[in-house]
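Researcher: Please predict.
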Amino acid sequence: MVQTPPKVLTLAEFLQLPETKPASEYLDGQIWQKPMPQGKHSVIQGELVAAINAVVKPSRVARAFPELRCTFGECSTVPDIAVFRWERIPREATGEVANTFL
């Protein structure tokens, strides 16, 4: 029996797909679904985001974001916590944080 290799998506094709829950990530041309976080994980994640932001946000050094889709190079991942230096946070013309982080 001949097996057909799975179709490899491009990053652009992946980004056109609807979001999933839990989030899917794009690495090396393949889609990986993150495991669903559970209670202890969620508690630690929430506390860590708050602790980081308490230190870096008031002085506009950086900001922590939970479960934020980050697309760079040929990857699109959703890390548990992403920390961006203040000047690298994408913003709308109004100054609000943008939805897309490329």
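Model: The chain has one domain: 11-88.
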